[in-house]
Each structure stands twice: as C-alpha cells, then as structure tokens.
C-alpha cells in the first residue's frame, strides 16, 4: 500500500508541476526599461501587408542592426481572434497593432504599457502636438493611458478604379448616381464586374460604404447617429439603406456582394482585374506602386501579373444633393508594447523609431500605406515608382492632401454594437430573400445600436 | 436479439479471468480470495491512471465549473474588471432572437445530417458488403470527406456554392439558369448550404460504423431469413438495421453534440451570416469570445446552456432507445 500511495503522490506532484508550469509561463515585462539597441521582437498586425512591413523593418535595421524584428500578418478577423487568447495566455507578441475603432484601446490597452513617458522622452513635453490632429488622443484608453503610439493615419470615403478596364469599356469615372449606372453598364458589357464589395460575414468593412452614402445624403448624419444625436431610422438613415438597395438592383454593386467579406472577396476580385471599382481606404494607395501592385496581384492569385493603373476617385453623388462623400479618417493604427513582453527595452526602440523618428515616418510615407502620423512628413517622390507615374502621381498627391485635411472620424466614434448592427442592416437590405421593409430594417438597426460617448463634448 | 454495443458488453462481462478489471469488479464476492483480488487490482490500476485521471477529469470539470462561475459576471477577459451581474447573461441569451434562431438551426442541422448519415451510411455499407466492382475505390471516396479537415475543404465548398460557383454553372448547363442564386449569401439558403456540407462530410462516418456493424451480424441469421424467403430489402430492413440499433443511437447522440458545438465549417463558409441566418451556438460563443464585442460572461453562459442541452438530450436519447425488458 505504501508503494501505491507513493506512486499516487508522485503522479499528483508531476501533474501539479505540469499545471504550475502552464500557469506561470507568462513573461513579466519591465515597463520602465530604457530603450535598448539589441534584442529580438515579434510584431503582429492586420496591416501593413508583409512586403511593406519588411520594408519598414529593413529600414529600421539599417539604424539598429542588432534588433531582429519578426512580423506576422493576419486577416482582419483572424487578428482579433488570435491576439486576444495570445495575450491572455502570456504568449502574445512583443509589439502589436492597435486600432482606435470600436473600443480597441480599452479592449487591448490593458495588455500594453503606457507609452506616454516614451513619447515625452523622445519628442518633448508637447509631444501630442507633434502628431496629426487628435491621433495620439485616439489611442488612449478610458483611463487616459496612452496605450499605443500612432504609426499613421488613414482616410476613406472614396473609391478606387481600374483605369484599364474603364478605358477598355469606354467608360468614365462616375460622378453621380446616373453616371455610375451608365459606367457599370459599359463595364459589364465587356464581361467585367462594376463595383466589388464584400458585405458577407462579420467584418465591419461594409460600414464604410454606409458612411460614404450617408455623407452624400447629409455629411453630419453619420457622426450624429453614432453619438446619439440622431437615430439610424431617421429619414436620412432610411434613405441611405434605400440607396444601398437600389445600387444593387441597378447593377452598381455586384450580385455576389454577400458571398464573403471585403477581404478576400472584394480585394481579390479587384486585384485580379475582374472588377472596375472597389471601395477601400487610403491604405490601398500602396498598390499603386510598380512593385507592390505586382505583389498584391500575385497574392490575389494572378501569376506573372502586369500592373493595371489604379486611381483614387471621389465617391459619386449618389443622393443627388450635389455632393459625394466628405472624407472620413483617423489614426489607422498605433503600435502597442505588450506589458508582459520580456523584450520591452528593444520594443521601445522599435516603436519610437517607427512612430516618432523622421526616418521611420519617412519610411511610412514612402510606403504609401498610411498618412504619416508625424506632422510635416510627406512621401519622397524621387524614390517612388508608380505603375504609371504621370497619371497616378497627381491624383495621389491630391488624395494625400485631402486625406490629411479630414475632420470627420471613421469608426472611432462608433461602438462595436453600432457597427455590427449596421452590418446586419446592410446584409438585410442587400439580401433579395429578406422581405422586411427598409423602415423595419432601419428600426432594427437603431434598436441593436449603442450610442458612443467618444469624442463628444 | 441485441445490438452491437450490448453484444460487446456481454462479451466483456463473461470473459472473466484475472486480467479484466471490469470482470473482476462484476464477479460475485463469495469468498476472501475474490475480495483480496479486488483490493490488489483496484488501487494498482488506479495508481497508473491517476495522472491522466487528474488531468482529464480535473481540468475538464474545473473548466466547466469555472465557466459556470464566470457566467454570472460581465467580463471582457484578461485584466478587465469582473462585474457581477447575477442571471443577467442568461436572461439576455434567452431573450435574444438570434439565440433561438441558432437553436432552430441546430435542430434542422441535426435532423438533416443525422438522417443523411443513417440512410447514406446504411445504404453504402450494404452496397460494400455486396461484393460490388471496385468496392475499395468507393470506400476511399466515401471516407475522404471524414478525414479531411473542414478548413481544407471550405474553399472548395465556397467555390461550389458562391454566386459564380460550380453549382450555379451546373444549373445553367442544365437549362435551369432561372434557379441560380447566391446560395451562401442569402438568409434563406445559407443554412441549407451549411447543412448540405455537413451531410456530405458525415455520410462516410456513418458508413464506417455501419460497415463494421454489419460484419458482426451472425451470417446464420441472414441465411435463416433467406431460407424463410426474405429478399434483400426485407433482410436489410428487418434483420440488418434492427441489429445496428446501438450504432444508430450512438450516431444520434454524436450528431446532436456535433450540431450543438458546430463551429468550424459554419465560420469558414458564412461566419453565421448573412444577418445571423446561419448562426449556431458555436459561432455565437466564438463571436462573443473573440469577436468585436467581447463578454466572456455571456459566452460562458451560452456554453453552460450548451452543456445542459447536450447532456439532457443525450440522456433522453439513451433512455428512449433502451430496450424494454421482456415481460415475464
């Protein structure tokens, strides 16, 4: 019996040790560590694409060769689903992307160190004013902690067009609803789709189309409704959904809109050259580059691609009120440092260089992925080669100027519940088998939404 | 007459001998020798299984009870504060039409997949026992959907069912172009796609069990039926299928549990959409755990409800399927 008891006790001890080991594998970071010149880092993000991130890291390594950074890119939804359990289990990355949208600063900010001291040390006591308008503020949590530093901003509220397809179809870039219908008829006549959009699934990309249409109806409506000063089933909201429905019925929005999400469905369709237009934000500028467009096309499944000329275009005046969409934007994402990271010192060096150094931000500007968060930095066009410089450069320069001047936020002032309810309403409107009236759909949207208090007052 | 499971249990019970723990435990305790054997075998075996026992039972049941505890809180996970909310999470779930839609979808999925699995499994198994030409090739074809991961198959299924997909092309080829539609992207058809994909992937599993079960049926019984003039169909439905009742009951329980916790194929195909039309409890729990709106208390409350339904229905199915004792 003694032997048996000993065996049993040994088993319990072994199991306990295993469980203890599992429970204590989380690292314990030193938030006060001074920036270091060597170390190893992992960086997780849904953006930028891996080739762009590798450009950033290569430039960083020219100044800090002893800090090895490994980047891992995720699809949007996958990022959320992967990051949360990784951080919870103590196996998260050293540095991770953090968006200002949907309460992300509170969602993941608690896993991050307060980077305000790092910013103050790097840029001085007026460090917040060195960034673009309210970029730093958008990355604070509800307790006022600076949980990430802005890498760059973005804007949306416009469309991208494939000039090659339009030229082949003899079509013009649309400026209002009727010209959009005309353009789409010409495009579909040559066997291409007109506007690709992925509104299926759970992602919130379709809200950008809603926001754009809403801006055409009334530029102040979206933010008013998001912050409780208007309702989603007000006449403006109903008109937005009516326009949405009509766009599909009139062949502007492709019939496969609910087959999947914006990524990969719409992105791949546009990048394959199957579709004339797509609604994407400023980050899509990167694919205007002579090399990055090839990478994007290959990623979409095109072998030996030849770049087409993609151009930004104003969102058409779909409401017939003489205006398209005002651009809306905010900080796209910041870089947060995992408080559990054993490499906080090296992570501080990396984040400070990426977000607050002239060279790092020049790198961001040149990637044409984001609007640089540090004021006064613009792309160095002498180093950039576009698919068609003469055609694309003037339009992209205008896009940068207009995007930088944006005053309307994108998702920062919309709650997760509001964005999710909007996606469901859009899906119901676009689904031909849903027999609900537009009014009922809008009422359901209002009921499921939750007012935001962010940036109000 | 008894089913496969009962036959196996009886074999174990009657095998006896000192090597079977179960047999030893069930043996009548007539004398001191048997008691000593029980004492000798029980603790020794227990010591061997103890580590695994503690890990599996300890971790699993700890997790279940901890989930039950969490279900009374509103908690975003990690370092966020845990706010006690009483039964609010349960009331919220029970008042949520999406939850009831998910329950309805689960029932539809279970009934359809179970039916397809039983009918398809029995028919394929019977056919394979009939010495048909190239039987091994057919077996491989039937079983492949079972062994390939849903994540591998999902892109192919999307290709089949999307608006510009294979199925619509086939319909157009057959002159049924008027019937083409966006099968994945419609509220009325998204559940159908998920269910059909489930049926397609489950028939092979039914086939494996029924094929093995049919091999256990006494050939003399079949021969006797044949001598009595029974035809193939009569033998299949009056002799073979009743003998496979235990397998059918097991499949019913397994299918119901699968339907309750269904997640991977749904998420890969539709993410529960559009507009929650193909939502299941598994996708709801996942969305609540890792999606844009995160409340682990709500997610665990849904998990607790799932466990309660799974256990309750499993017990009911087993009780209903139990053969009644013959009246003396």
UniProtKB/TrEMBL annotation, chain A:
It comes from the Bacteria. The keyword Lipoprotein applies. Gene3D superfamilies: Periplasmic binding protein-like II. Residues 1-26 form the signal peptide. Transmembrane segments: none annotated. Keywords: Cell membrane, Lipoprotein, Membrane, Palmitate, Signal. SUPFAM superfamilies: Periplasmic binding protein-like II (SSF53850). Coiled coil: none annotated. Pfam families: SBP_bac_1. This is Carbohydrate ABC transporter substrate-binding protein. It comes from Candidatus Lumbricidiphila eiseniae. The lineage of its organism: Bacteria, Bacillati, Actinomycetota, Actinomycetes, Micrococcales.
């Amino acid at each position: 019996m003694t032997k048996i008891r000993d065996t049993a006790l040994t088993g319990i001890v072994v199991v306990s040790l295993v469980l203890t080991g599992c429970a204590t594998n989380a690292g314990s970071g030193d938030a006060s560590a001074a920036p270091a010149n060597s170390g190893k880092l992992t960086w997780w993000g849904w953006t930028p694409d891996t080739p762009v991130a590798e450009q950033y890291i290569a430039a960083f390594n020219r100044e800090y060769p002893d800090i090895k950074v490994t980047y891992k890119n995720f699809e949007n939804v996958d990022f959320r689903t992967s990051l949360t359990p990784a951080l919870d289990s103590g196996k998260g990355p050293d540095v991770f992307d953090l968006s200002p949208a949907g309460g992300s600063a509170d969602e993941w900010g608690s896993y991050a160190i307060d980077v305000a001291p790092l910013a103050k040390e790097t840029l001085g006591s007026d460090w917040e004013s060195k960034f673009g308008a309210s970029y730093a503020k958008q990355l604070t949590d509800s307790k006022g902690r600076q949980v990430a530093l802005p890498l760059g901003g973005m804007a949306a509220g416009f469309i991208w067009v494939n000039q090659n397809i339009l030229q082949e179809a003899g079509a013009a870039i649309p400026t209002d609803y009727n010209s959009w219908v005309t353009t789409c008829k010409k495009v579909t006549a040559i066997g291409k789709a007109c506007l690709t959009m992925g509104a299926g699934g759970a992602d919130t990309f379709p809200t950008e189309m809603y926001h754009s249409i809403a801006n055409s109806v009334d530029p102040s409506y979206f933010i008013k409704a998001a912050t409780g000063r208007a309702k989603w089933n007000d006449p403006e909201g109903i008109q937005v959904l009516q326009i949405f429905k009509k766009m599909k019925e009139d062949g502007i929005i492709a019939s496969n809109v609910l087959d999947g999400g914006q990524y990969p469905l719409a992105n791949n369709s546009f990048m394959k050259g199957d579709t004339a237009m797509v609604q994407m934000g400023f980050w899509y500028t990167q694919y205007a580059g002579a090399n990055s467009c090839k990478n994007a096309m290959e990623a979409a499944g095109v072998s030996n691609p030849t770049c087409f000329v993609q151009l930004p275009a104003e969102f058409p005046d779909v409401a017939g009120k003489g205006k398209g969409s005002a651009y809306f934007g905010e900080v796209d994402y910041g870089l947060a440092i995992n408080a559990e990271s054993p490499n906080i010192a090296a992570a501080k060096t990396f984040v400070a260089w990426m977000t607050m150094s002239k060279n790092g931000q020049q790198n961001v500007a040149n990637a044409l992925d984001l609007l640089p968060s540090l004021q006064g930095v613009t792309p160095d066009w002498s180093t950039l080669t576009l698919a068609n410089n003469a055609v694309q450069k003037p339009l992209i320069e205008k896009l940068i100027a207009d995007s930088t001047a944006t005053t309307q936020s994108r998702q920062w002032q919309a709650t997760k519940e509001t964005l999710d309810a909007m996606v469901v309403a859009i899906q119901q409107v676009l689904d031909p088998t849903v027999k609900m009236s537009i009014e009922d759909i809008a009422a359901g949207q209002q009921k499921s939404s939750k007012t935001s208090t962010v940036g109000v007052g | 007459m008894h089913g496969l499971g009962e036959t196996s249990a009886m074999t174990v019970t009657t095998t006896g001998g000192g090597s079977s723990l179960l047999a030893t435990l069930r043996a009548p305790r007539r004398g001191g020798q048997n008691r000593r054997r029980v004492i000798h075998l029980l603790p020794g075996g227990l010591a061997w299984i103890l580590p695994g026992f503690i890990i599996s039972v300890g971790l699993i049941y700890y997790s279940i009870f901890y989930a039950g505890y969490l279900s009374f809180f509103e908690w975003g996970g990690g370092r966020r504060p845990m706010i006690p909310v009483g039964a609010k999470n349960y009331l919220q779930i029970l008042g949520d039409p999406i939850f009831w839609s998910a329950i309805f979808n689960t029932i539809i999925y279970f009934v359809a997949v179970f039916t397809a699995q039983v009918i398809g499994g029995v028919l394929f198994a019977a056919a394979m026992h009939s010495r048909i030409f190239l039987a091994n090739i057919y077996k491989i074809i039937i079983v492949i959907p079972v062994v390939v991961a849903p994540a591998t198959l999902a892109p192919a299924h999307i290709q089949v069912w999307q608006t510009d997909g294979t199925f619509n092309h086939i319909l157009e080829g057959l002159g049924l172009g008027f019937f083409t539609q966006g099968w994945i992207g419609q509220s009325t058809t998204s559940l159908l796609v998920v269910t059909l994909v489930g049926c397609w992937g489950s028939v092979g599993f039914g086939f494996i069990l029924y094929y093995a079960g049919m091999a256990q049926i006494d050939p003399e019984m079949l021969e006797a039926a044949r001598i009595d003039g029974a035809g193939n169909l009569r033998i299949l439905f009056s002799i073979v299928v009743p003998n496979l009742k235990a397998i059918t009951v097991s499949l019913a329980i397994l299918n119901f549990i699968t339907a309750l916790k269904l997640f991977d194929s749904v998420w890969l195909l539709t993410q529960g959409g559009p507009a929650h039309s193909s939502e299941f409890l598994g996708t709801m729990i996942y969305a609540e755990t890792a999606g844009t709106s995160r409340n682990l208390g709500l997610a665990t409350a849904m998990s607790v409800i799932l466990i309660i339904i799974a256990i309750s229905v499993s017990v009911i199915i087993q009780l209903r399927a139990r053969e009644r004792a013959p009246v003396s």
